[in-house]
Design brief:
The complex is a heterodimer of chains A (about 280) and B (about 800). With about 280 residues, chain A is of the alpha+beta class. Chain A is built from eleven helices and 14 strands. In chain A, helix 9 runs antiparallel to helix 10 and helix 10 crosses helix 11. The N terminus of chain B is likely disordered. In chain B, the strands form seven sheets. Chain B has a seven-stranded mixed sheet with strand order 3-5-1-13-10-11-12. In chain B, strands 7, 8, 9, 14, 15, 16 and 30 form a seven-stranded mixed sheet that branches. A four-stranded mixed sheet of chain B has the order 19-27-28-29, with helices on both faces. Chain B folds into three domains: about 150 residues, 2-Layer Sandwich (Aldehyde Oxidoreductase, domain 4), CATH 3.30.365; about 180 residues, Alpha-Beta Complex (Aldehyde Oxidoreductase, domain 3), CATH 3.90.1170.50; about 325 residues, Aldehyde oxidase/xanthine dehydrogenase, molybdopterin binding domain (Aldehyde Oxidoreductase, domain 4, 2-Layer Sandwich). The chains are: A alpha+beta (about 280), B alpha+beta (about 800). At the A-B interface, helix 11 of A face helix 2 and helix 19 of B. Chain A: It comes from Rhodoplanes roseus. Chain A: GO terms for molecular function: FAD binding; oxidoreductase activity.
């Protein structure tokens, strides 16, 4: 499990990184925290002639906060979010999610931008950022463009970013002060990828509710029917649970393939428990 | 019964003394391990060493048409034909009916599993060696693979080794009148159980480093092995180097659990090649190789029928155990070890007079099967103990009470089982009573009544009991038909002139704490401080010949040898001390690094000074020097039987299929404990592996014979959060057959956990009409069963 030979370059700034990506024949691959790329290289599942390390680019490590959003540089690590070293846009949801990613050793190096760019359908950030309605800022030869979350994740390991573009930052809208959330992840053992993830955000002040099912299909599934059932719901009731079950079935029917019976049980549980948590039921 | 070399005469310990047998002495070896100063195979730093990558088969079954070498392969890539005149491994049983097969060190004509080594590639680094391996082009003529048990049993499947079919061996243990039992039975229960194929997952993988020592004119083979001496013996035969010119060294070994208790093909190939090269070569197994190409474990399908009376007293058992042993028979255990073990011990700790067993070993295009902590016992225990719970459910009794009623009673000891095992001592039912009290059965039942049915999470309680044959002696290995008989162990105990003690033992310490516990045995006999005793092991050049560490044998066998040698050496120490003190030898005792006679004493170092440097101070006729070498064999050639009952409370989440362990208790008896702290660590570690067996670990293959779990992303092992702290009660019935009454216990923790956990999960889900009889119980299996039961109820 040792990688093929490859060239390694450390980009000093974003233009430097973009220059490396501009030459399509060079076959360069960006490495942020390296927590997925390095194992793939070691297993020789992926071979790239050139690896461009962006983890030391100062601009990508920046984080800022405005009245209505938090902006995180692509190379902010899970560990920094977990430790509160980045502004929190969503009443603690991002800190909670970050703390549940893999193991601390992975969180020390793994980055939110790297995770979003890799777009592993089982990854926590892919699900969470879709639920939060994040916007992804890519920069390429033609300058910057903004991609909304629903347009970002096109398939497993497949995003809207082109090979010449670099994800430079992520803008996460702030939730209202009284917004609540639920996040329920099923893993077979601690630190593993989720088999199923439910992310629920209820923001009555903005008349907003979002429900995303992650890890269970090729891309995270926005459960709009479940979100509609939850919008404005003041508390958890049996009637709400019944309505939610119907809505979830409606949402799951829109998935790209039918769920096997065991998967259907698990994903329904996941969404129901995330919703219950968002309504204060543990 | 084979004659033991001498009566043990080393009686059980009445009251433990500090530092001696029975004391919780902190481990001598931990100082270097905790400081990161262990020296494992990958840490060896021998100038000029080149690294090895094996080219391994990417296909499960194929003929090799041709192998095209890349430029620069000369002197860097080696095939079987480049290794000289070496023999293939042929691991057979002497038992009539066993079908043998050859396992070449490197595949030359045919590959029979994914991961089978084909070529050795050398590089300055492992990466360079892997680059080279990647350049080699092998033209395979693919053959249809035989993958699962059902295919292997099908006479129409292609034969792997030129036999009429793929059945390697069938054993038929048993005795008594099963038909009569069936006729007399009020209830008959039949189930089929499956235990998945597992990887062993030692923390350190396997590894070999070898070179020819020009000064000593010997081949030096470092290997991460549990049994250096016997590896030397078999290597010598296979590669044609005489044993006195072959040294095998096991450095620090980072866990074995059985996977390093075999002759490895890589050992043979590397040793053979190193003899022909002028520089050292090394292979360090990586995790992917370990998960694919190391000997794997389990993969059993057992059909078991029990006939019982209306109270659940088991009158007779019928069993068929089929084990998928993979592509080759590995030395020395043979492919048939697992199936023979399962079929041979299926009556468990119970007094069952009628049994008809059948153990079937089949071969397939999967990695060869080898020993893993517990060997066939986790499967046998799982099968029998699951069925006991189903009998209990059928006759409407508490499962633990049914166990108590069926167990061999203390007054029946020693008890010969229907398959010929000799249970030596103990009160089996007491282990059930104690663990039932620890887990508090009424409280768990009350909690179940309150909680189950009110939400998605259901509580379940499970028990499992077993006996563990340990320190198998001469009779056992002969009965099993092994080509070598591992019936004894050896140790040298020697003082140095400054009064310190060195123990040289042929076992290998890879986590068992033997550098401490053997020192405790010497302390018991010689009054030395165990922290000050050096235990050298794992090296054919530093100790007399012996068998190694496996089968829960080292404390009984090597402990017995150290005890005997120390006792004999102590007699000489006392004679010299008596001479120095001018008292009678019989009046001398050894304690606190001194020889004491009443109010008078002399330091041991005065005794050793006389023995080594001042023969003029020795009694008349006494030889100089102070060292002693002895062997030890237990009085019973079938070993000593430890036993235990485990009890576990689980919470099953019917919404996710996840199982949480809420409480885990063990009441066990391993005879006299040398170091209860180490015993508890072994129980805890064994249970951890049993939890993996029950809930997580599985090495599935696709229909083409490709292993699907090749990294830790796919092959899940329990981590600290998944393993509860096990509550442990010690029963301590000394074995009448061993030194000090010690019984082995290294494997026990792993044996009962799968059975106990599956019983607990089934207890939780039984009211829903769910029954699970296959490990591991994954969320998929649990949720599918729940769905099926719900569908069934809706009909």
């Amino acid at each position: 499990m040792k990688p093929m030979p490859f060239d390694y370059a450390r980009a000093k700034d974003v233009p430097d990184a973009l220059a490396a990506l501009a030459d399509a024949d060079a076959g360069a691959r960006v490495m942020a925290g390296g927590q997925s790329l390095v194992p793939m290289l070691n297993l020789r599942l992926a071979t790239f002639p050139r690896v461009v390390d962006i983890s030391k680019i100062a601009e990508l490590r920046e984080r800022s906060e405005s009245a209505d959003a938090v902006t995180l540089g692509a190379c902010v690590t899970h560990g920094e979010i977990e430790d509160g070293e980045a502004p929190e846009p969503a009443a603690g949801l991002m800190r909670h999610v970050a703390a549940g990613i893999a193991y601390r050793a992975v969180r020390n190096r793994g980055t939110i931008g790297g995770s979003a760019s890799l777009a592993d359908a089982s990854a926590d950030w892919v699900t969470t950022l879709l639920a939060l309605g994040a916007r992804f800022i890519g920069r390429g030869p033609d300058g910057e463009r903004e991609i909304a979350a629903p347009d970002m994740f096109l398939g497993p390991y497949f995003t809207a970013m082109t090979d010449q573009e670099l994800l430079v930052r992520i803008v996460v809208p702030k939730t209202s002060r009284d917004a609540t959330w639920g996040y329920y992840k099923v893993t077979r053992r601690s630190g593993e990828y989720g088999l199923s993830i439910g992310a629920v955000i209820l923001d009555p002040a903005r008349e907003h509710a979002s429900v995303v099912l992650g890890a269970a299909s090729r891309t995270p599934l926005a459960c709009t029917a479940a979100a509609a059932a939850l919008r404005g719901a003041p508390r958890w009731t049996e009637a709400l649970e019944t309505a939610l079950r119907t809505a979830i079935a409606e949402d799951l029917a829109r998935a790209e393939r039918p769920f096997e019976p065991h998967e259907a049980i698990m994903v329904e549980t996941t969404i129901l428990r995330a919703a219950a948590q968002a309504l204060g039921v543990s | 019964m084979a004659a033991p070399s001498a009566p043990p005469a080393l009686a059980a310990i009445e009251a433990p003394r500090p530092g001696c047998i029975g004391d919780r002495v902190l481990r001598n070896e931990d100082a270097r391990f905790l400081a990161g100063h262990g020296e494992y195979l990958a840490d060896l730093d021998i100038p000029g060493t080149r690294e090895i990558a094996f080219l391994r088969s990417p296909v499960a079954h194929a003929r090799i048409r041709s192998i095209d070498m890349p430029p620069g392969a000369e002197g860097r890539v080696f095939l079987l034909k480049d290794l000289g005149d070496i023999h293939p491994v042929r691991a057979v049983l002497t038992t009539p009916g066993f079908r043998g097969s050859d396992y070449p060190a490197l595949a030359a004509d045919t590959v029979r599993f994914v991961g089978e080594p084909i070529a050795i590639c050398l590089g300055a680094t492992r990466a360079a060696a892997e680059d080279l391996a990647q350049e080699i082009v092998v033209d395979f003529d693919e053959l249809p693979p035989v993958v699962e048990i059902e295919q292997a049993l099908d006479p129409a499947s292609p034969s792997l080794h030129g036999w009429p079919d793929n059945i390697c061996f069938v054993s038929t243990p048993g005795g008594g009148e099963v038909d009569a039992a069936a006729k007399a039975a009020a209830v008959t229960v039949t189930r089929e159980f499956r235990m998945a194929r597992q990887c062993v997952v030692s923390l350190e993988g396997r590894g070999v480093l070898a070179y020819w020592d020009r000064r000593l004119q010997e081949l030096v083979v470092y290997s991460s092995t549990q049994q250096p001496h016997v590896i030397r013996t078999v290597l010598a035969k296979l590669i044609g180097v005489p044993e006195h010119q072959l040294r095998v060294v096991a450095p620090d070994v980072g866990g074995g659990f059985g996977v390093k208790n075999n002759l490895q093909q890589e050992e043979v190939a590397i040793a053979a090649l190193a003899r022909r090269l002028k520089f050292p070569i090394r292979w360090v197994e990586d995790r992917r190789e370990h998960l694919i190409a190391s000997p794997q474990a389990r993969e059993h399908r057992v059909r078991l029928t029990a006939h019982a009376d209306a109270r659940g007293k088991i009158l007779g058992l019928e069993a068929e155990a089929v084990v998928n042993a993979g592509a080759y028979s590995i030395w020395p255990w043979s492919a048939a070890m697992e199936a023979n073990m399962v079929a041979g011990i299926l009556t468990g700790p119970y007094a069952i007079d009628a049994y008809k067993g059948r153990g079937v070993t089949v071969v397939s295009n999967k990695a060869p099967l080898g020993p893993y902590r517990g060997v066939g016992r986790p499967s046998a225990c799982f099968t029998l103990e699951r069925l006991v719970d189903e009998i209990a459910a059928k006759v409407g009794r508490e499962p633990h009470e049914l166990r108590i009623d069926n167990m061999v009673r203390p007054e029946q000891m020693p008890y010969r089982t229907v398959t010929g095992k000799l249970f030596d001592s103990g009160d089996y039912a007491e282990s059930v009573r104690q663990v039932a009290a620890m887990i508090d059965v009424p409280a768990v039942r009350a909690r179940q009544a309150r909680q189950n049915g009110t939400g998605p999470r259901r509580i379940g309680l499970g028990f499992a009991s077993y006996t563990e044959q340990t320190a198998h002696g001469t009779d056992e290995w002969i009965a099993r038909g092994l080509t070598e008989v591992f019936g004894y162990e050896t140790a040298t105990v020697r003082f140095t002139p400054d009064g310190k003690l060195i123990i040289e033992a042929a076992i290998q310490n890879h986590g068992q704490g033997l550098e401490t516990t053997l020192a405790q045995v010497a302390a018991q006999e010689l009054g030395v401080d165990p922290a000050d005793v050096v235990v050298r092991h794992g090296d054919t050049a530093v100790s007399p010949y012996g068998m190694g560490t496996f089968a829960s044998r080292s404390m009984v066998m090597a402990g017995g040898a150290v005890g005997r040698a120390s006792r004999q050496l102590g007699e000489k120490v006392k004679r010299i001390a008596a001479h120095l003190l001018q008292v009678k030898p019989a009046d001398v005792t050894l304690a606190n690094n001194c020889a004491v006679a009443g109010a008078r004493s002399v330091p041991l170092k005065s005794v050793t000074d006389a023995a080594f440097l001042h023969p003029e101070n020795l009694p008349a006729g006494e030889d100089p020097c102070l060292d002693e070498t002895t062997t030890f064999q237990p009085l019973s050639g079938t070993g000593a039987f430890a036993y235990a009952t485990h009890a576990v409370v689980v919470e099953v989440d019917t919404g996710t299929g996840l199982v949480e362990i809420l409480d885990y208790a063990v009441a066990h008896d391993c005879g006299t404990m040398v170091n209860p702290m180490i015993v508890e660590g072994q129980v805890q570690g064994g249970v951890a592996q049993g939890i993996g067996n029950a809930l997580l670990e599985e090495s599935p293959y696709d229909s083409g014979g490709q292993p699907l779990a090749s990294t830790f992303a796919d092959y899940l092992v329990p981590g600290a959060p998944e393993v509860p702290t096990v509550r442990i009660a010690h029963l301590e019935t000394p074995s009448p057959f061993t030194a000090y009454g010690i019984k082995g216990m290294g494997e026990g923790g792993a044996i009962a956990a799968p059975a106990a956990i599956l019983n607990a999960v089934n207890d939780a889900l039984r009211p829903l009409g769910v029954e699970l009889n296959e490990t591991p119980i994954t969320p998929k299996r649990i949720l599918t069963a729940l769905h099926d039961a719900r569908t069934e109820r809706a009909r």
